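Model: Ready when you are.
Researcher: Fold this.
Model:
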Amino acid sequence: MRAAFISHSDCGRHDTGWGHPEHVGRLRAVTRALREDPELFHSVEHLEGRHATIEEISLAHDPAYIASVRVIAEQGGGRLDADTVASSGSWEAATAGAGCVLTGVDLSVSGVNSRSFSAIRPPGHHAVRNRAMGFCLFGNVAIAAHYARQKHGLQKILIVDWDVHHGNGTQALVESEPDIRFVSMHQWPWYPGTGAADDRGPHRTVWNIPKSPGMPRSDYVESLERGIDEATKGFIPELILISAGFDSLAGDPLGGFTLELEDFDALTRSLVARADSWCEGRIVSALEGGYAPERVGEAAVRHLRALGT
């Protein structure tokens, strides 16, 4: 299986400043780590994604909000919330980030590259329908889930989010669809304060797995595996989407989980085995958080290698 590594140069145009945790150095660390692994570098398909259209972003977001992001960028940028900023290049970056994940969906469904990892920014899993939040402008993975259903006619979608923060935006943007199941393991209590275990969504298609910081690594891995098992009882997904947040690595400045590189390798291989059994191997993964750039690069490479096996 030849996995695709998808990115877009415009993702670097989202200028948050080097003092902001979500800066362009995160992507540079991923590409550097990939170059430093020649075997993997030559074994994956390197692709530039495309820009998502306004119509595609509107599958998950309010058109007035989408327009406001574009206007703010065209006016030189500004602060969207206490943590989230936009620059003059943020419109191009955000539409490119979403478009890369949609490219991954197209490749997966067509069978050209059944599995992919999109190295993108800004991240997406906190953005809600009508506002930015937590460094996120558009819900890249949520948009991809709706796109897979509308464009390709897929019905059953599984989203797995292992970012250390709850994917509140993703949940809000997909929980009204009974055939999209969402599993999020996240630190609790922690930003953004959502994701209680008893929050199952209106159709009980949400599995929130709140966990304390500083636990043994195996506790996190086993809890997420159990959550995926529960979410897929009697439910065979046609596509798996991953919100690959690497701020759940030990030592991340914005999280307290203890996961190591080997754990992301194991979790990815487990999902690959499931996808091979369920849906012809189809997995589309997208970068979310992770704020120790060198560690993010290492983890992304391990994840991508596991996707390609």
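Researcher: Now this one.
Model:
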Amino acid sequence: MRAVQAGGALLGRAFYLFDGGHRRLALQNLQHAFPLRTPDECRQISRRMFEHFGRLLMVLLKFSTLTPQQMLALVEFDGEARVRAAHARGRGVLLFTGHFGFWEINALVHALQIEPISVLARPLDNPLLHELLERVRRSTGNGVIYRRGAIRRVLRALASNQAVAVLIDQHMQSADAVYVDFFNRPAATTSALAALAIKTGAAVVPVFALPLPGGRFRMVYEHPVEPPPGDDEAAIRELTQRCTDVLEMYVRRYPELWLWMHRRWRDVPAADRVGPMFPAGRVEAEADDQV
């Protein structure tokens, strides 16, 4: 695994050198988020971030070749009891994270250690990449829910006391977006997580997959995020803000593990705009609005 990660770091370094558009976007986002850091410090974080996402790709490919026992031998769990306690409430569990750390690895091993989950996702333009990622995501028993018919499928999963995983850190252009503060800047964010939690009473559990020395990983399940009273738009926005605050806390601790080359905030000057880092969805190309 150390060799796999070393190869991934080299791959990420190559993207850093040759993908000038995303390199500049990442640096710009970092300088906005950390105004007290020097330009050189932001460049170092950006370089390490590119290396991290190269590692993530290679580790995901490596995990696709491992047995369940080999996968579990590479990870440890912190806060697993919080998820089990959330399931004990009987209303389902909404797991959330962002494009942070090794989130795809967490979904794989969560199914082995606790129980399979449904992952909200969007299809990729490239059919070969889409098929590969779909196969890897389902390899340990998880399901994948795409946008069409998603609400009914998510509600059925929660009603059966299952867990559904949601990413909350991509820009949205849909009418369901709510603006919350992320690094002191308004960011259009999916309201699906909060709306589902308030509607169903499902527990909302933050989860983060962190690297450890020696090619191992730690899956951290934080305390559930409590919803505010009420079920109106203000309550949905407040719960979305609370969840975003948890994500921001982890990104501030480990800035090199988050996807800074994404246009999370849309006040980027037009001349500096770049295309998506990864293939976009066929229908959902503008937003990660899975529900």
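Researcher: Key takeaway?
Model: The longest strand covers residues 203-212.
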